[in-house]
Amino acid sequence: MSFLSDAVSRIKASPTVAMTALAGELKAEGRDIIGLSAGEPDFDTPDNVRRAAVAAISSGKTRYTAPNGIIELRKAVCEKFYRENGLTYTPDQVLVSTGGKQILYNALMATLNPGDEVIVPAPYWVSYPDMVLLAGGTPVIVEAGIESGFKMSPDQLEAAITPKTKWLIFNSPSNPTGAGYSREELKGITDVLMRHPHVWLLSDDIYEHIVYAPFEFATPAAVEPGLMDRTLTMNGVSKAYAMTGWRIGYAGGPKELIKAMTTIQSQSTSNACSISQWAALEALTGPQDYIPTSRKAFERRRDLVVGLLNRCEGVVCPTPEGAFYVYPSIADLIGKTAPDGTKIETDEDFAKALLAAEGVAVVFGGAFGCSPNFRISYAEADEVLVDACERIGRFCASLK
Fold this sequence. Notes:
The protein folds into two domains: 6-44 and 290-398, Aspartate Aminotransferase, domain 1 (Alpha-Beta Complex); 63-285, Aspartate Aminotransferase, domain 2, CATH 3.40.640.10. It is built from 14 helices and twelve strands. It has helices at residues 6-9, 15-28, 47-58, 71-85, 100-111, 127-134, 154-160, 183-194, 220-223, 255-266, 274-285, 290-309, 347-358, 382-398; strands at residues 34-35, 94-97, 117-122, 138-143, 165-171, 200-204, 231-236, 249-252, 325-326, 360-361, 363-364, 374-377. Helix 3 (47-58) packs across helix 11 and helix 5 (100-111) packs across helix 10 (255-266).
C-alpha cells in the first residue's frame, strides 16, 4: 500500500514547469534550445524595487512578520485597489501571500468541502483544476474555444451552475490565451452571478497591467459592486513589475474569508518573505514608469509573433488583448506525420516533436484544457522570437 495521500493522487505536476525544466536540461546538454514555455517577463526587476530590498536587508527588516503581511504593504494594497480599480478594502480585508498561487491555494483550502464544485473556464491556467482537486472539490470545466475568442459566454456559465457550485475562478486577461473580457462582456458574466447568490467569484487579475489598446482592463467587482461581499480579487507583483522570483501575491475580500485564509497560511508557510514584502511596497507606491515601458515592448512582441505564426502552414493565431502569450490553433496539422515518422495525433505530440526537431519548447494545449493548440510566451527578445517562429514554420512545413 502506498504511503502517499489520496490528495496527491488526484493531482499532477505542472506541465508548464515540466516543459521548462526539460528545455533547461536539454540546453545544459548542449542542445540549441529556445524556451518559450515559462510565463515570466524577461526584464529585470525595476531599480527602485531592488534598492528597496537592499535597504530592507541593511536596516534589519529580515525577521518574521504578521502572517497576513506587514501593515504598510496591506495599506498600500488597499490604496492600489481603490486608485486603480475603484474597490474599497481595509487592511483586515487584505492578505499578502507567497505568490498569487498561494492566494488561490489558501482560498480553496479554506472554503471547499467534498462535493463542492468550482467552475473553471477553459483554456485555464494549469494549476486551477489541480488546486480544486487538492482541496477536495470538483472542477467543472467550461470550454470556450477559438471560435468564441476563448471567452466563456453568460449562457455557458448559467448552464454550468448547480446547487453544489461554490466558486467561479475567473482570469482576464487570461493565461494561456491573453483573451480579455471587456466591461460589457464582464457585465454579462456578473449578471449571471447576481442571479445565483451561493456562487462566489475568485477574480485572478495578475495580468491587469499587461493589456493593449483599445482593450481596457476592468475587474468584476467594480463592474458589479453587488458582488463585493462574495468576491476575492487577487493580484500580485510578479508580472506587472517583473518580480516572479520575489514571490508576492495579494488579495482583497470579505473579512471572514481573509481571516480563514490567514489561518491556513499561518499553519503552512506563515508570512511571505519580509524582504520581498518591502520590495513589493516600493513597487506599488514608487514610480510606475516601468509599466508602460514594458507594456510597449510586449505589444511589439505580440504583433511580431502573431504575424509570423500566421504565416506558418496550418497555424491560426488570434491576436490577444493582454498578457504575454499567444495560443494558436493547429487543427489543420493534426493527423500529419513528422519527418522522423512521428504521427501528430494530439497537440502534445506536436509540442514534443517540435522540441525534438527544432529545439523550440512550447506548452501543448491539452495542459490548459483546450485542444488542439499550443502556448507560446513571447516574453523574450525580438531576435529570439523571430528565430523561434522561423523554426516553428520550418517544422510545420515539414509535416506530411
